[in-house]
Every structure is written in C-alpha cells, then in structure tokens.
Amino acid sequence: MNKSKVYYTNLRTDFKNNLLDKLQILVTKAGINNIDFENKYTAIKIHFGEPGNLAYLRPNFSKVIVDLINSKNGKVFLTDCNTLYVGGRKNGLEHLDSAYTNGYNPFTTGCHIIIADGIKGTDEALVPVYSGEYVKEAKIGQAIMDADIFISMNHFKGHESTGFGGALKNIGMGCGSRAGKMEMHSSGKPFIKEKKCVGCKSCAKNCAHEAISFGENKKASIDHNKCVGCGRCIGSCNYDAVSSPTDESNDILNKKIAEYSKAVLQDRPHFHISFVIDISPNCDCHRENDLPIIPDVGIFASFDPVALDMACVDACNKQSVIHGSYLDEQRHHCHDHFINTHPETNWEVCIDHSVKLGIGNKEYELIEV
Length: 369
Known about the structure:
By secondary structure, the protein is of the alpha/beta class.
C-alpha cells in the first residue's frame, strides 16, 4: 500500500499570512478543492466546546473552510451530536446555547449549525457496519448521514479513555447519537437513577419492548431481560434519570470508535483537519481544560484520518513535556506522551483496528506547507 499524504503547517506567521491564511493554503495544498462541492450537502463535524472549557477550536477556523465550500456552491453546515453525559450539550437546545456562547453562529461561521441527532438525541440513522467486530449497525446522527460530503475538524488532545482524541475520535464517538455513544461506552444496558426519576413515564412511552415499569413509589425500573439496549429512553428523559454504565474496556471502546468511524465515512467523499494546539491531557467534554502537556505543534490535513492521527501523535511525541503540567507529574513508563498521561489506555488499538477495517493507512508521507 502506498503511503498516505499528510500535509502540515507550523504556527509561525508574518505580515503576509496569518493563521487563517495558512489554514486556507494548507487545505488547498492537501487537495480539498478536488472534492466536487457543487450543490452538495456538506457536513463539517466539529466540537463546539463544553461551557467552561477554553481549548475548543475558535469559530474563525471553521469559517475558512465554510467560505471555501460556499465559493464552490456547496450547501455546508456545522454539526455535532449530543453528549451521553450530563453537561452543556446533552440536548439540542442546550447544545445550541453552548455553541452560541462559544462564538459559533451563522454570523461568525458563515453557515448554519445543526445538531445532528436532534433535540433529544434520538434522530439517528442506522448504518450497517458489514465488517464490524463489535458493531453491526451504528447509530449515527441523522443530519450527518444526510450529507453528501463529510469534513472533520478536530482539536488534538489527550483523552482519559482512548489515549488521545484526534480525527477518529471526533468522527466515531462524535457522530454517534446518544444511543450510539451508549453502545460505544457500554457493554451493558441503561439503568434508572431513582432519586432523579419523577415518574413522568416518558421513557416507557419511547420503549418499544415494554421493558420499563413503575413501582408503588412511581419510580421507573428497567427489566434487562426485555431491554435491548437501544438507548432511546436516555434521550427521552428530561431529568437525566436514565443512565448508562461506562463498563466497556478501553480497548473495546477504541475498536467501537473505529467501527463507528467506518460507518460515517464509507461510500462518500471525506476530508480531515487536525489542530495540534492547546494539547490538554483530557477530553474537551470536560467543563475545564488543564495546562497543556506539550507545546503547540501546528495544523495537519489529509484525506486519510488514520494517517492524520498517526502524523499528529508522532509529532506530539517529539515535543518536550511542559514543566508543571499533568504529564510532567506522571511517572513515565515509555516514550509515548499519551500513554504516560493515561497509562491504562492504548491508542494504537483504534489505529490498528481502523487499518483492519480499511479506513486508512498507518504509513504516511508528511509534506510541510
């Protein structure tokens, strides 16, 4: 197999080119204009930022890509799916509020923002994963699957369950509906937090398998013999009383993310951009971002998300550790910053499984722009 091409630009600027100019030059050199955007619906998958976390990508970056697609007469929108956990992006309304708070709106980005799995996280497309080892039918946000072209923009950082969060994490986990996220995080089935349940019976109305009943205390309970783990009760509850066990091993979680990524990317054009800046130790889904563990590196772009993740992690592992950071405080077991940050993780599992699924190539040629 030939090496995949990954394009890179550093963060140095001058009077002629600022970072936004350099981003446009980078994606142009990487071949984004070879995609036919004419009258095509184009989804740009991006993380709008959990309120309180300041490491999310600035909306200025997304506008560069939006303007480019608009110039090609594309029908472009920014999108993400709701989160499984309780926070500022758990439903479509709060998710939009969070996006607006962090500067994402049609005036700053040049396009509309669509929460792909709807108000309650239940608007999903069931996408077959024919070669999936763990996932046979991925639950992907409907608006993402309605798009003709898929573009991902991700903030590259550490992650407490997957080692790092890059292109594949942004695609696989990020594009899953709330039920899809439950499937990736859990090998079990949802359960009721009785203290939060108000007995409204919304969960039971959305259960197709009559698995939910109510006791004398009017609290819901789930019969796991009847429950199929579809997760629709999670999206239907307005009180966060339905929860999912996060009991899947990190290795299986990484493989499921790869399989969800395959479901998103298969059978349509796609392109990916990674911003290796503000490299915090944990996921951007936290309501805070810790001191970066290594210095800023640059911006990377490729048609191959596997090669892109490999290039980013290799570049990160060449950097020195920032004094006083979380990584600096850890006992270093190897020459890998992300494994040293979270020793219970192994990011290579996702990469290797993605290669096995035919998503991309670990071998890459790095081209500096």
